[in-house]
Amino acid sequence: MGDAGRHHHRHGSFGSRDLENSGSDASGYSDEHDRDDGTRDWDSRDSYSVRSDDPVPSKIERSGSVGYSKPGKKDPIGALLKLMDMMEENGGHDERSLNDYDGESHLMGKGGKGYDNEFFDDASTRRPPSVTRSYMSEEEEELEYTAAPFYVQDEENGDYGEDEDGKPIYPAELDSQKPQIEKKYKQRNRINWLGSSVFFIYLVAFCFYMWIRVTKTLDLGQFVAYGIAILVIEIMGATATVIYGLNLILRPVYETFPDDPENPGRPLVDHPYHIRVLIPCYKEPLEIVGRTATAALDAELPRTCQRTVYLLDDGKDAAKRKWCMQMGSEMVYVSGRRRAPGEMNGKSANLNNAMRQIYPEGVPIPLNEMVCIFDADQVANPDFFLKTVPLFDAGDDVGMVLSPQAYHNLKQHADIFNHANVHFWEYAQPGYDALGFISCTGTNFLTRSCAFREAGWSPEYTLTEDFALGMELKKCKYHCRYVEEYLAVGEAPDQVRNCFQQRSRWCKGHFQIFLSRRHCPLFQRGLSFFQRMMYCTGVWSYVVGAVTTPTYILIPLLTVWAGIFPIVVSQWAALGLTVYFAAQTLVLSYTKKVKHVEALWFASVSNSILWFTYVKACWRAAMSSCGSSLTFKTTLKGAGKLMNTALGDLWMPGGCLIVLLITLGFGIAKLVQGQTIITTLSISVVWLIYAAIPPFLICWYTVAGRGTTLQFWCRVMFVLSYAASICAIALLWAVYPPQ
């Protein structure tokens, strides 16, 4: 059957982030435990422990646990897990050092530009000290460290901006200055002829296949209802492929920017932008957050631009505050906000607290004010602002400029959770740009401050505030530009529990938006019909993944144990499946580079691993929207921690693997004992091998490690999956009755 449902987007889902890899989830707001009702347990997460009783240790280790580990406390389970990691070459990345960069970890960006390994050396950027977390005293915690309004800061710097007549704008005159959108952005696109041709071939093949399925393969007698149900699920899977194919038709045409005559090699911008860099954090160590802040502070700017970096600390860390105060006037520490009862999205609330301080209510925001957001671990390239800021000059209604995400701790040939998300960043997002669709991913982006305010700041009504922000900006008629170049690098979650929770959170966030009467994309008047449909594709793809994957596992099981096959095998069926499989493979394997084929395959593997997570997230989001009260997920330690980090998520893929292997053995035994080998049973045996690949890889990832051996098995399974698909098609031709 068609396997389209396994290839949908980000966030495991198309139109969202695996849709994320959304967004970066190394931020404290991304790795804390979710509550089952969609809210988060803020006090349960801190994965760092101090190695000794020294108040300022020389190094901070990541313990792999959830919650603080007391010095000297023995943890045999944790020691065993660490020993297993050490046995794997380049396995667990326990130290989480930015110097663990692997030259093959990242795919090349626009123009073949990738990351410079030197960028990750200690000497390349200023590095904060490695210190332990320092809690504030009760008196300090009562203080609120706020940011000054933007016009006060400009007054201190002696720069207020200028009006239309070239006269300086003073704070007293800001009330009468309303930003007017005079220059409108004009989208320019080109047709991607190769991508369009591949998509057109797929549409023709799909129509041909559907004609054969409806007219030639449903004569199943008493099992006709089963055959129709499988056909409907196939159509569901095909819709995900169609949505993905739409993004291959057009590509944006990017402007060329003149060099600044006074600074050759740097772009010349039309306005003196002031960029407010916001770095929200919770309990990440200063070593991580400070690296992000100094990279943002040291990155080059166009000549006429200014910047201020704000560290938004929800963890009230005195060490971070003291460090910020030593960094000069361009670094501002913000902390001490009061959390609202039942707060759902702490990251958004933290951002909005700072935004309302910097941009007071009732004071118009000039068009040259920008906000840039980095997650706590996202280290910007030195040319980040040189590549992004000029894109705002294309029009005053350009509300956002977005760049992709990459991670230093990935192995390109072992990315079974699809953190690299190549199909999203390098194929879907450029298509979104051309179609005028905004798919924000939460970090490494800039937004015009007045547009940010008009959109209501960062949405707090959902766990996926980034996706919701894109929709809110589009409702306000703003445009988004996409930079096809990796300009920042972060850290991807690699613990099984964190990966599953991340994808569950993304899925629940999309359903929160869709099931909301107020925010459902279908009922947003500011969106066109096409935009409403596009903003629903994330939810739809999660549904597709939650339905198609278990169905395609169930089909060979029923054939082996009950002798029920969902189609009438004939020459017509073989022809239709051959044509459709070839066309679908063309679309889902359409790449600019040969090595991307493997990366796109990992998207299929990831969704096959995570299907049950999507089922649970869909159900919990639906129950939460109905007012159900669900329990918190608690923090476990010792043996319970092992269950929490792995086995609690592995029971479904592990159970599937066991059932598939038992069925495979039984099927082979039946083939050996049967009179003929070439039957639908043989097709199902090959299908079982194909279906067992994703659960095998996640079990190996958890039990044996993430290093060289996992890379070996991923490459073997990559070849085996395509071989199994081709073998199944060949068997179809051999099974049909002779004429």
From TrEMBL:
Q: Which domain of life is it from?
A: Eukaryota
Pfam families associated with the record:
Glyco_tranf_2_3 (PF13641)
Q: Where are the transmembrane segments?
A: 191-212, 224-246, 533-555, 561-583, 650-669, 681-704, 716-736
Membrane topology term: Multi-pass membrane protein
Composition skew (Basic residues), residue ranges: 1-12
Task: Tell me the keywords, alphabetical order.
Answer: Glycosyltransferase, Membrane, Transferase, Transmembrane, Transmembrane helix
Ranges annotated as biased composition (Basic and acidic residues): 30-62, 90-105
Stated name of the protein: Cellulose synthase (UDP-forming)
Q: Which organism is it from?
A: Apatococcus fuscideae
